[in-house]
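USER:
Before I trust my own judgement here, I would like a peer's view. Write it directly below this note and I will take it from there.

ASSISTANT:
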Amino acid sequence: MNAVPMDKAQPLAGQVAVITGAGRGIGLAIARSLASLGATAALCGRTRTPLDSAAQAVVEAGGKAEVILCDVTSLESVEAAARRIEASFGRVDLLINNAGIAGFVGPLHHLPPDAWEQILNTNLRGVYYAIRALAPMMIRALSGHIINLSSLAGKNALPNGAAYAASKWALNGLSYSVAEELRSHNIRVSVICPGSTNTDFSPHAGKDPAKMLQPEDVAHAVEMLVTQSPQSFVSEIDLRPTKKP
């Protein structure tokens, strides 16, 4: 892979950013932000309609986007997406593992086993599949940045959300460990742990949406990470609203 000349106005010009769960909310905000910096946004998700709308929003804002249907809980689907990305672009510079679900709300002993599987498969196994399928392209290029979207629930107790918290605690450990595995290949791995964010991802009963984090706040954190100087990287960002919602 040839190096891409740095453009101060568009520091990611020529780069390819793969964003999972890109059809709405935080994923869409990240896609728009990275596209505004010059990257081509590969928008991944299970449902075409929101992805098409997201791609249109990116293009209307002056960016470049491509829709790729992908279910992160299926290794076959993720590997097919990786083959398409390699055929279309020949590179992956940024992998933003954003797809996730909150799922069941209630005590763990009431959690149906299939709900446990769905939460862990999406929030943790999906990240493993994406890294397994796409990191080899970064390793061959000796360049890349993987950013995993976790949660402050991955650092604190979350009553009535134990399965979600478990998936995010595990994701943090995965992220720190993979960062050490890939450092010698000049690949950075970071994790972002936002607090309550105003999306339709999960209910936030009793919280003021205006005081909550907004998807653009998380996108800004991603932007800070991917525009760092190449000799360093921030391994973790804990992101909180200024005022408790």
The first strand starts at residue 16 and ends at 20. The radius of gyration is 17 Å. The chain has six helices and seven strands. The CA atoms of residues 21 and 27 lie 6 Å apart.
